[in-house]
Fold this sequence. Notes:
The structure holds two protein chains of two kinds. By secondary structure, chain A is mostly beta strands. Chain A is built from eleven helices and 65 strands. The radius of gyration of chain A is 33 Å and the shape is globular. Chain B is mostly helical. Chain B has a domain at 79-231 and 456-485: Alpha Horseshoe (Serine Threonine Protein Phosphatase 5, Tetratricopeptide repeat), CATH 1.25.40. Chain B contains 20 helices and six strands. In chain B, the strands form three sheets. In chain B, strands 1-5 form a two-stranded antiparallel ribbon. A two-stranded antiparallel ribbon of chain B has the order 2-3. Chain B has a two-stranded antiparallel ribbon with strand order 4-6. Classes of the chains: A mainly beta, B mainly alpha. At the A-B interface, strand 32, strand 33, strand 37 and strand 38 of A face helix 1, helix 2, helix 5, strand 2 and helix 19 of B.
Amino acid sequence: MLKKLLSIAFMCLISATAAFAQSSTVSGTITDAETGEPLPQVNVFVSELQVGDATDFNGEYTIENVAHGTYTLRITSIGYVSVEQQITVNANNDTFNFALQADVQALEDVVVTAYGLDREQRSLGYSVQEVSGDVVNRVDQGNVVGALAGKVAGVQVIGSAGANIGGSERIRIRGANGLSDGQPLFVVDGTPMNNEAFMIRSNGSTARGRDLGNLMSDLNLQNVESVSVLKGAAASALYGNRASNGVVIITTKRGKMQANQPIQVDFSNSTYFSNVSELPEYQNEYAGGYTQNFIEYTDPVDGQTYNGLNYAADESWGPRMNGQQYRAWWSWFDADFDGDGQSDYGETTALNSQPNNVEDFFDTGVRLSNNLGITGGSENISYRVGLNNVNEAGVFPNSSLDKTAVNFNGALSHGEKFTSRISFNYVNTQGEGRPAQGYSPVQGNAVQSMNQWFQRQLDMSKLKQYRTDDGTLTSWNIRSNTNTRPLYWDSPFFSVNENVATDDRDRVYGNYSMAYNVNSNIELVGKIHLDSYNFVAEDRIATGGLEEDWYYVANRSRREVNYEAGANFEQDYEDFSVSAYLGANLRQERYNSAIQQTVGGLATPNFFNIAASIDRPDVSSFKSEKDVRSVYGTATLGWRDIIYVDGSLRNDWSSTLPADDNSYLYYGLSTSIVFTELNAFANQRILSFGKVRASVAQVGNDIGPYQVFQTFNVGTPYGSNPTLSVPSTLNNTELVPAVSSDYEFGLDLRFFDGRLRTDVNYYNSVREDEILSLTVPGSSGFSSALVNAGKFTTNGWELQAGATVFQTRDWNIDLGLNWSTSTSEVNELAEGITTRQLETGFFGVALFAEEGREWGNIVTTGSYGGFRIHEPTGKPIVNSNGRYAIETNKDLGNILPDWNGGFRADVQFRNFSLGTFFEFQSGGQFYSITKMFNAYSGLSKETVGSNTLGNPLRDPVVDASGNEQTFVPLGDAGSNSGGVLVDGVDESGNDVAYLYDASLHFPFMFNIKEEWIYDASYLKLREVKFTYNIPASALANLPIKRASVALDIQNALLLYTSVDGIDPSAIQNNANGFAFWEGGGLPQTRSVGFNINLSF
Amino acid sequence: MRKAALMAGMVLLLISCDDFGDTNIDPNNPSEARPELLLTGAQRSVSSVVGAVTGNLWVQYMAETQYNDDSRYANSNANFNGWYTGPLKNLQTIIDLNTDEATRGNALSGGSNANQIAVARILKVYFFHMMTDRWGYIPYSDALQGSENFSPQYDSQEEIYLALIDELKAAVAQMDGGPGVNGDILFSGDMGQWTIFANSLRARMAIRMAGTGQSSVAATEFADAVNSGVISADILYPYVDSADNENPWYSRFRTRTDYALSDVLAGYMKDLGDLRATKYGNPAPDVSNNDGITTLDEIVGMPYDAENPGNITNAAISFPGAAIGAGGPSVGIQNAPLPIITVSEMHFAMAEAVERGWISGSAEQYYLDAIQASWEQWEVFDQAAFDAYVATEEVAYSSANWDEKIGKQKWVALYPNGYEAWAEWRRLGYPELEPHPQAFTEDAQIPVRQTYPTTESQINEAAYNAAVSAQGADSPSTHLWWDID
């Protein structure tokens, strides 16, 4: 505020001065230095006066009322080098003409490619899309994966709901990456980084438990200078086998080695407040129970009979809420629930709706982030030190995340020839109270209960009193009035406050490199890259709840070291330029884990230690080693800045493949032609830059350790008898490396000096002989076998477009679009096998890859199915029992989107800027367990309302004679009949319709999975940021060079979705799933943040 | 100089590029197996047969207290893959280790080669028999061959029965006088008991085949099995007071109360004064006097056909008994054993065999012995009560309708071995159970088989299609070979 006042005062002062002094009208013409033609739309600005003008079509500008004096005149135009010049205005001197130099650099963006080689974009024969740190960080994000959503064409991000604090986010580059849909390689300043995602499993299942997040969330985004996404094989051939799913290259900020660099200190603070933004729509008419009558309970204390609900029911098909007096669950506990110091036993209360009870469960999340960067340099030294702390209290009660990062980037020149670079990063991440997710994890899933199995009349303030004064646990879901042990659910606050998981991870990564300049053409480099972590995750179930008390601890550590040596060569000849790199790499991965948990409960209540295990604790230790050795080379040949040809070759030897077949060679070849350099394009001003590119490449692939030789599994011992079993996966000593082959074409066009930009890309990728764990008939003795098999094709289009639609002295409006479409087809699986199950969801739904179809079909399994359709009429068949007929093994659609992307609109007005970012997706199906049980248990809004006769859905179904029925044909229904309309055709195609009792109909629909499949299309205003850059003039008397304040909103608005209450962009609810189902997951949040950025 | 060192380093790297030594040898899992450890592992799977739920619902031993989908046959699909990849594969590996010249020497840690093979064969028969009685045709002769055969053909149930009976005989015949098997949690390596177990299984299978075209084989095999010696003491699966080897009913009632004793069984028993009901179920809290002695009055069955089961409170009904492990913490018995094959069952089989003319003796006496053995098994035998019970018209033996008498009493006695009871109910047709009124099956009847795992029609398509065309539709209503109406 103070600064604003100062700046206003300062401006007033200037105007006042101007009014009294002598003044002139300053004018002039701006031309192109090369052609001499006048340039329109050039900004001319007098910094000191904060006045200016834009040139007209004759390149002329006029600025009136300029007081005589000396000023800095700033002339800026897209595609031209900006000019800042001191001018002195007096009566004789008021015309200033300038000739602007075309800014070649602007059209020749430098991007970072494999092995940190900076390359001019014009020389690349393949598609690399770079996102600047500003764009990645527009809104302060916790996870680099989520920060890329919509910002790169061809990238799909499946996010994690905001309430899942620090949850896993999944990325797909160019459709499904092979049958197992692998994740890309992340590289930070040349160091390959682990991005595994871990969870604390519950009941041994990968689909329930606590999501500990993907490990790339360790990256401090505030330090990011830029992110390059290498999408195809040609771009990534140099990274070896792990690059077959694409590479995300991250460059962090660093200092400049240049004499007399001032020390720059950057500080930023952001404070975010988040709230739950998406919840299913609930009904608020009927209370808990299975039928609409009250249940009469005899109170053993006073012997009287009272109306009560069916407390044991975790559904809401109970009585209509009309304010009737009844005994709520808490009235059967001799305890104080309302804080008046009196026992509430025996109290009756009015049965009223609690429309906000679920919302009331959640807190307002607060995230505080502080970031400090110190940058400096001299002739021989450059450095940047970064410090970052993020402290977040989640919307989910009692959840928090704390992240502290320290990083150092430095360079030292040792004399003329030697340069050392060092990058060191330490990050500590601590999570506490991460929510348990998925279907009925033993730790308790509060959100699952509230969205799937609950009673709508429950009052959260009563549930919060989950322990009485004497320590007895209370729950709404008591078995009866005299047996208050919970049946299915503890109080949600019990699991949230007492079953608390903690995790703590130290991550150290970085590299040291030394370069030696042999001469001006040859440079030798040696590098060591390290990425390591030590990760402890603990989980607890407190004593006394529904589940047996339990303690779990998982220790994991991993280290990857890459030793690299190489030589760079560069030489320019008259028309030709040559650059080449030759290198060798040794990669060593070491992993250790020890996972222990108590069995049979804790010997001392709430003493959480493995030593407390009543029975022999369950302990498993695991370690693995993997080495990969590689040699590789790349060379680029350029001719007159017009044609570039690029080739690369690599050979890997992997320790995980059979010894006689562990070597694989692959290549990349690409070319780029900048045709606008040709004479034919010389005399036009429309197309400023044009390039065609083409590439073809291969990447080889190996597998994880220990999948070649047969071993035995150690099983659960029986007393003192240990056990062994034959693993259900058959290993294979005959495996060979897998190969994927890519080709792509691209066209990069820029018009009107870059004010309109498009880049189109087509790619095709074929993977053959993938190493698959193929499902085989169990009767063979194995459930899966490792084989080389299959053919998998992905192809698609990517489009990037940008436009500077409006630009004046005060205004700048810039738009950007990313759009992509892809298809991922399974051409063939193994011999005799045409289907492969990829993942099973809960309750009879699985994800399959089928030969000849697109990857990722949702198919029902077991006795579950979809609607059986009468082919001629296309209508669902309804059996004479009033139920939809079920077609088992029904294909319910594909999970991959048809197209997706992002749209950016940035508006700048003087010192104000407004950035908005939209993300969208069309198509892709998912299975919602939340919606399914929300209806099953009578919680959802669709289970109330009026039926086709205009009567309440939940009223009894009655026939014409007024007798209650489970169902009646619609034609025979009484005029006052309730019930849900079930209509379709019979087996012969005749229209039939029934009214079915609602409390039986919705549970039946559980069997028809098709009902719960939703289209994942969405349009979302993902980021909005409003920034005010405090004018330099206002800071003149302060030791601050630059300052800005900003207000931003994350997940501002879900503008379009086909499903209510669920954000289809954030359904990743466990660490490693393919995100084809949702359920028991957490709600999405909206965050509003205040940011301050200061530079000293 | 540095350049030269670097070059030399790179050359060295290249020379040894493809040799990684032992890097890919898994340090986490043994490369070699000790057969006795495989045997213990395979035997643990017997618990999954005798402690299974589904059969108990379908023969209406139990009712579901809330989510009654299984009682309504919503999921008659069942996955057999786990039996193959679990116990059967482990047992096959024991046989292989004891057969292969290269490994049979080391395998002696598990007992003599012949004895280990014999035990593995008998257990394989036990599992395969349970499987074919659930699904009918299953892969048998092509099964367990690993990568040699990833498309195993299905064998007819008739072929499987004949082969299994031969296996049992061959296994007994090949036992030698060498050391008994180690790691044996059922019989502690007592080969005599394995012989008796094999004979008893053979008698069980022979009785099942009684109505088929192979009835003469059944008669011969049954008489031979009985002559060779069948069990005289119940064979029970021994659970342990430890969470990882506890009774599965105990596990199920740890946090939930999904099952109750069904009124179909409880009502039938209470009417006849059958004291076993006091063990089959726990007292219903609403009617119990909590004196620690359970009387028949305190047993209240849960209506099997309740339209809204959730409205019946837990306090009003009897959970399955503590004697089978159920009832919840502090009630259930964590290590309560469950019957694998009982003396009672053998006596019922002999009563039937007399009626069929396979063996001599008094059918009625065998029948009464069977019932008495069952009362003794559940520790409720009281001479007066027993005499009164067997004197009731419903229980009293009648040779004219031996199938109904044996059918009903066998049904009562086989509790809680649901799958065995379901098989005998299908074969004998007694008691006459009413299907659940809200049945999910297309014919609204109780399933008479389980359907194949979904994956079979996709990844073993030709074999699956051949089996379905030979056996009949892959539906829960298709009758098995021995299920003659």
